[in-house]
Amino acid sequence: MAVKTIKRLVKILLAIVVVGLLVFAFIPEPMKVDIATVEKGDLLITLEGEGKTRIHDIYTVSTPIDGRITRIESEPGDFVEAGKTVIANMYPANPQFLDKRSETQAKADVEGARAALSLADARVKQAKAQLEFDELDYQRTTELYAKNSVSKASLERAELRLKTLRAELETAISNKNVMQSRLEAAKARLLQPKEDTSSVDKKLANKKLANKKSSNSVEPVNNCHICIHSPVDGRVLRILHKSESIIPVGTALVEIGNPQDLEVNIEMLSTNAVKVKPGHDALIKRWGGNEDINARVRVVEPSGFTKISALGVEEQRVNVILNFTDPIEKWAALGDAFRVEAAIIIDKAVDVVKVPLSALFRQNEIWSVFKVVDGRATLQNVKVGKRNEQFAEIIEGLMPDEKIIIHPGNNIEDGVSVIAR
Fold first, then answer.
1. Which of 138, 142, 224, 329 gives the lowest tally of CB atoms within 10 Å of its CB?
2. Which residues contact 172 (CB under 8 A, 6 or more apart)?
3. How deeply is 356 buried, as exposed, middle or buried, from its count of CB atoms within 10 A (0-12, 13-18, 19+)?
């Protein structure tokens, strides 16, 4: 009898355990969700933009003449001083080689200029001889006038002729100088590389090219022939032409600027740029440092430009220029054309209740969130104020330190049991 009772009790216990397991199996488990705490603090309304730093005033040093420039010894980062630091040393360019026709024509021009000079020299001699004769004639006329042998009119005519002959002599001398200059110019057109006018004279006189001496190279004073100095105090930013070569006038050599005169150029969509005003504060982010850099909008350029995005879409963008407001020690590592990102603060809400945007959703055209109360999700309607890309201001419906669900899925309903993930 006792054995039967024990067996019956065991069966009853087993049945109770099975029923309990079945009941436990059908009890819904709490859903794992991401839970955040409602906070109170400042909310910054910003517009994001990407751009790069730039030195406000960059000076490009160029060549003043055609010529040969020696190798530039400066390196990027070197300090330079206005009017003292020599950026480059130049020599005038050698003349080009003449073809046979040009050489023959230039020789003829030299011979013609030499003949004209000889003619001018003869006229000078003629004018001098005539002047000497008339000076003697004037002296005789003066003596005769003193003896009342000639009239005063004769004396005045002699004096006038003397003045006229002196003027003719000056004209002849000036004409001779002009002919001399034309001869030198004609000789210059015969110059070949590494020649001067003296070698041209030897060439025309002796017809021997082997004995000409090169005299075009002039030793510079203090190792500098034509010195190109730095126009400003600053540092060398870029070397645009390094090696020694023959270059034309206006060739850019180096760029010089002051790294402390740094600003930020942010390229913003025109639809965002219209909301930005000069004087707005900004934060320079993701520039490589550990902390954001404070800046301020200096100007919003009035003209936009078209830029193709990475997806191939045409966008109208506007340059927004920012000036740093933090001490230079904080951003001294930045240089010209460094990539940065900026968040321009166009509005601010101080000491407000805020929640992540990912916690908000629309329920019957009303903003709502799911609060976590006693382990269950509770639907809560809220009134939303200002928003940025991460947070939203809650005007009504939530209090600080309350728990809410972020990223609620479609399986979250009012009253569902939840647990933190």
1. 329
2. 120, 123, 124, 126, 127
3. middle
Q: How far is it, in rounded angstroms, from Cα 23 to Cα 18?
A: 9
- The answer to whether the Cα torsion of 231, 233, 239, 244 is positive or negative is positive
Distance CA 68, CA 90 (A): 6
Contact 86, 113 (CB under 8 A): no
157 CB-near residues (< 8 Å, 6+ apart)? none
pTM (whole model) above 0.90: no
What are the distances in angstroms from CA 353 to CA 38, 203, 312, 350, 397? Answer: 7, 97, 40, 9, 10
Non-local CB neighbours of 236 within 8 Å, separated by 6+ positions: 74, 75, 76, 77, 78, 80, 254, 255, 256
Is residue 317 scored above 80 in pLDDT?
yes
- The three-state secondary structure class of 111 is helix
Residues 32 and 419 sit within 8 Å (Cβ to Cβ): yes
Contacts of residue 364, defined as CB under 8 A and 6 or more positions apart, other chains included, come to: none
**Two tokens at 57?**
């005033």
pLDDT in tens, 93-108: 777 777 888 888 888 8
